[in-house]
Structures are given as C-alpha cells and as structure tokens.
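WARN no homologs supplied; continuing
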Amino acid sequence: MKKCFVLLLALMLLLTALPSLADGRERPEDKKVVTTDDVIGAETVFKKFDTKFYDEPSEQPGTVVRLDYTTSAYGNEQPAWVNVYLPYGYDENGTERYNIIYFFSGTNETQDSFIGDPKAKNALDNMIEVGVTDPFIMVFPCYYYDYDSRAINMTAFSTQEIPNEILPLVESTYRTYAETADAAGFIASRNHRAFAGFSRGCYACWHQFFNNLPYAKWFMPFSANISAADEMSLEMPVEEQMQMLHDALAAQADYKDDFFIYAACGGKRDMMYDVNAALISAMVADTENFSYGTDSSKNNLYYSLSNELHQTLMSRFYLYNAFDVVFK
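OK structure emitted
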C-alpha cells in the first residue's frame, strides 16, 4: 500500500513539473497545400488548415462585443452598430496595443454573419493561441445603411462612415496602435491596420483601398473583382478596373509605394473565379505598380487560390494564409 502511495505521489509531482503539457498547444501541420502556377502567370499557394483543430473551441477564447453608434453619413442621423472581436486576455485597463482588421461580409449578410459562426470565431481564437499571428482586434461593420431594402452607398460608406465615424469610435474605445483616434493617429499607425472582405464585402474592401490608403497598409480582398461605387458588377472590363486602381494610387501618391494586397479566391467552384483571376492576372502583369511575392519589404501583391466554394466562412482559410504576410 505504501509503495502505491509513493508511486502516485511521484506521478503527481511529474505532472506538476511539466506545465507545458497543459499550458499550450502546438500548431498542427497544414492539412493540404495547393500550389498553382498556370492561372495568373505566377505561383499561388493555398494552405488549408486542420479543421478538426482550428474549428473546435480554443482553450483561450476571445470575446465578441457590440458597439452602438449613430451615423449621419447618409443624411439624417440613424442608429448603427458593429461587432468587435477582442482576443483572449484583452484587458481594458492594460497597456498592450493590438493590430486591427476591419472585415466586411458578403451579400445579404450582417455584422453577425462571419464572427457569429462558431467555426469562424474558433478559428480566430486558435490561430492566435498557437501563434499563427499575434493577437489582434477584428471589427465587423455593415455596408448596408438600410438593411431591409439592402441599400448601399459605397461612396458615403468609404469616405464618411468608415473614416469619420467607425474608426474614431472603435479606436478610441479599444487599444490599437493609434495614439489618437483621428486622421493623424490613423496615418501614424497604418502599418497596424488592415481592411478585408469577402464577395460584396471584397468590393467594399477595394473601395477602402481607393479612399483610405493613408489609414491602412494591408488589404485582403477575397473572392470578387472591382466594381464602381454604385453597385457590384461582374461585367466591368478589367481595363476599367485597372484604371480605378491607377487612379487611386495617383490620388494617394504618398502611399503608392507602401501597401500590401493579399488577395484570395476559390477555384472553379467559386462563381467569382473567372473575374477574380482576370483582375489579379492584370495586376501581376502591371509591374510598374505591383510587385508579386510574399516579401512585404519589396512586394505589394500576392494571391492564394483554393478549391473552396463561394462562402464567407471560407474567409477563415484565407485569413490563415494571409497571416503569413499580413502584420509581419
């Protein structure tokens, strides 16, 4: 009996002496890696993470909070709100600062559509926990100013609501790298800010590039082409899309050499595959304005091409790939 007690005590001491077994988990190997070199005239790489690991609840879960405000970007004042993802350990009384991503969901979706899916939130939690990326804050606005009628005014959204209302509200409330929640503070901290979006949200992301390049270095447009401000269109010729990019760079010339676009799309099962690949191909060929590769010190464009469907939830895969470059 005494021998059994001694063995049990030794086992307990051994377990308490190995905190690493309980304190942290290792990042699993990428489940599948797809490399393509015949779509855009350059190599693309897509790494699909282990869904059995990343889609399950994390041991270090972040929180999602709602932030209400009033917008006057569309005429009369009206109520509006965003969801804000805060990483595990976020302390409102602390001193740590965080990178921030503004993410726009797809057609007919709301502030809840991506982050409200447990798989998406678990993926963010797990990616932070195992060190895929540093902890970050993620904000989920909605570009429908009247959701019932699905009304969009992308010009007002991009030039008024985002820079004048949402950014100041969020970044005066939470600890980002902006020392002041105004234009000067956003410009000084642009290396720590990203815009991302999927499908129609990708269209919104492109318009942040057109209007808010001084405020962000990183852009992650997923699964859509570029469209005019009035409405999303699959029919706009690539030449017109490229002209919009050239015009945006000319209008924001102080930042034309300091940005990075990490684009992504599904494969042939994604309804945006053809128009998206055509746009990225044209950008790759435009070596005067774009340099293709993953070294953000000398490149400003990369593309990840998956075999996934056209679904906003796929953005968790694209973020996983983008974090190899974004904020590094």
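Residues 154-173 form the longest helix (20 residues).
OK
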